[in-house]
What we know:
This protein is an alpha/beta fold. The protein has helices at 24-30, 67-92, 106-114, 129-134, 139-147, 156-159, 170-184, 203-214, 262-280, 307-314, 318-328, 334-355, 376-396; strands spanning 121-123, 191-196, 219-225, 228-229, 232-233, 254-258, 283-288. The protein contains 13 helices and seven strands. Strands 1-2-3-7-6 form a five-stranded parallel β-sheet, sandwiched between helices. Strand 6 (254-258), helix 9 and strand 7 form a beta-alpha-beta unit. It is globular. The N and C termini lie far apart (50 Å).
Amino acid sequence: MGPPQVQEVPAVTTTPRAVRRASPRTRRAATPAAVEPGLLPQPEPVRLLDPDGTALPPRDDYPEPPIETLREMYRRMVVGRRFDTQATALTKQGRLAVYPSARGQEACQVGGVLALRDSDWVFPTYRESMALTARGLDPVEVLTLLRGDWHCGYDPAVTRTAPQCTPLATQCVHAAGLAYGESYQGRDTVALAFVGDGATSEGDFHEGVNFAAVFKAPVVFLVQNNKYAISVPLSRQTAAPSLAYKGVGYGVPSEQVDGNDPVAVLAVLNRAVAHARSGRGPYLIEAHTYRMEPHTNADDQTRYRDAGEVEAWRDRDPIARLEAYLRSQGVLDDAAVAAVAEEAEAYAATLRRRMDTQPTVDPMSLFDHVYAEPTPQLVEQREMVRAELAGDEEGDA
Length: 397
């Protein structure tokens, strides 16, 4: 089942201010005024809920999403976290080669897909397994890449979800290109590119944002600033006051949001998606969040951050925050919470059972879908493997 349709809200107008003719001396003074209104993010991250779930005063610029949508967001976040912890456990059992956890980033993971239509496209990184299952993709197919069985376990064309991207930021260029192509053909498709804070230091991020801005491609770049690019802290990546300011230089309206406030995350995403869908071009969002687990199961996080820092972020848990708010609104009670938890456990149990079955893998499939027309080198390599397999079969005989 696809996510419920969320209310679209008017986007920020980005009509340039008129810059009056002036002498060189006065023109220098007038230059800052040429910055388009709406390009600069809020000086502080947008927040609609306090960390304890108490509602802050409503805002005209970011209306609260419908309460039933928020309740569905809560359900998907709970199920998503249970999927995430189960996938982490599967690495310890040897069922997965590696798994990058998104625990703590549930508001961004679920909010990102909940703001989209089924007809929109998602361009994930390797950390977006939770987002993809929240979108309705088969969890075993999502984990196929991390299991090492196939390049991508799901059909991108059918799911309108690009393969999970391991190279940093290359998905930004792909998202911009697809979004522009869809717009060129008259479709109102929006592409959402998930981005990590480390990826903003890569050239492909800047190329993707710049291309999208120039050609007004309907793409939303959602930067999940979880404070570390593996072990490198944000302070070693940028001197900008916020990663959201990266969009200003390309003429892209930007915003920063408390990434652990599910209501604010969805409200900001709704506005950004509406902006892109209306033909105004791309939008850049920086969500301030935190990765609670190591970078992957192969990472030793104690070498670059202390336990006290991690513990401090537990008080900003996005699931607890949304649960408290929904309880205060009378749309969530103990029975409903228990029912969602039971659903999450059943989801994890089914995943465990299905992952116990070893897949049948054809070694020759390694060469499929690499190029539309195999290169001479690939053909040579394929024949080498074929000959080696044939020799093994003769030896067994």
